[in-house]
Amino acid sequence: MPLFNKPFRALIIGSSGTIGSALVSALESHPSCHEVIGLHRNSDPVIDYDHLETIQTAYETLEKLRPFDLIINTIGVLHTQQWTPEKRLADLQANQLQQQFLSNAVGPALTIKHFSKLMNPAGGVFATLSAKVGSITDNRLGGWYSYRASKAALNMLIKTASIELHRTQPHLVLVAIHPGTVKSNLSRPFRGDEIGRDPSEAASEILSILGSLEASDTGSFKSYRGEDIPW
Ligand SMILES: NC(=O)c1ccc[n+]([C@@H]2O[C@H](COP(=O)([O-])OP(=O)(O)OC[C@H]3O[C@@H](n4cnc5c(N)ncnc54)[C@H](OP(=O)(O)O)[C@@H]3O)[C@@H](O)[C@H]2O)c1
């Protein structure tokens, strides 16, 4: 992919997180990446999905720094101190559903709305981290209602945006990426440290896949191995 063959600029959203910070580190030592900027809840500018207006404000601050060739949004929530993924229908709570949709679908969609305008018109990749458990076709075990549904909604928002943006930004590749299980705060309560990969390994795999994408891959849902995941 031409993206990584020439000097490129990258923006990592959620750079305080496990995968986000590993992506920043990997890009800082990438020979072709001449600048990487990280955004999170305590960065300047701030991006905080509990305050959705910060998305537009962050965009307005970064506007003077465009264009970016690579944007990766890693923000996502699976559990908090107040709730964990639902095991049964009886566990469903409005507050948990609303918070997961806010952080995993509404915030990332509004980020695509604003930040896609920062992308290099000559071409680039805008990836948002989704999850294979958001695949409706692949759902065999049930459970995890709000996380699954919020990532499925995210996937539909990415697919729909990719169709529209292809008309005005034909060289932009907009994708959903499943990072696989990675040792992190998010996966720790679910044996993540035992079954997950190191964040540095995951970051290198994600960058390798993003670097291999073609314009025709826009609107796809890819795994960290490059396979297409069924919606
Ligand atoms: N780890 C896995 O095994 C795995 C598997 C499949 C998919 N994923 C996806 O990969 C992505 C990254 O996961 P991770 O393992 O790196 O998780 P993580 O270490 O918990 O990082 C999550 C990131 O999201 C940010 N965040 C959460 N709520 C936010 C909000 N309301 N506003 C702004 N930022 C917020 C966190 O910011 P703070 O630092 O401020 O909390 C942090 O930067 C997520 O989208 C997740 O769904 C992960």
Description:
It contains 6 helices and 6 strands, in the order βαβαβαβαβααβ. It has 231 residues and is α/β, with parallel strands linked by helices. The chain has a 6-stranded parallel beta sheet, sandwiched between helices. Helix 1 (18-28) crosses helix 6 and helix 3 packs parallel to helix 4 (145-168). NADP nicotinamide-adenine-dinucleotide phosphate binds next to helix 1. NADP nicotinamide-adenine-dinucleotide phosphate (NAP) binds next to helix 1.
Features:
14% strand, 231 residues, Rossmann fold, binds NADP nicotinamide-adenine-dinucleotide phosphate, six-stranded parallel β-sheet, alpha/beta, 6 helices
Q: Helix and strand layout, with pairings?
A:
Layout: E1 8-13, H1 18-28, E2 33-39, H2 53-62, E3 70-73, H3 94-115, E4 124-129, H4 145-168, E5 172-178, H5 192-195, H6 199-212, E6 221-223
Parallel strand pairs: 1-2, 1-3, 3-4, 4-5, 5-6
The structure holds NADP nicotinamide-adenine-dinucleotide phosphate.
Q: How many discrete domains? A: 1
In spatial order, strands of the major sheet run 2-1-3-4-5-6
Number of helices: 6
> What's the CATH H-level superfamily name?
NAD(P)-binding Rossmann-like Domain
Query: Judging from the principal axes of the Cα atoms, what is the shape?
Result: globular
H/E order of the elements?
A: EHEHEHEHEHHE
Distance between the termini: 25 Å
CATH class: Alpha Beta
CATH architecture descriptor = 3-Layer(aba) Sandwich
CATH topology grouping: Rossmann fold
Task: Please tally the β strands and state the result.
Answer: 6
Strand content: 5-15%
Main sheet specs: 6 strands, parallel
Kindly state the percentage of residues in helix: 25-40%
SSE class: alpha/beta
> Which stretches of 5+ consecutive residues score pLDDT under 50?
none
Q: What is the C-alpha radius of gyration, as a whole number of Å?
A: 17 Å
State mean pLDDT (0 to 100 scale): 96
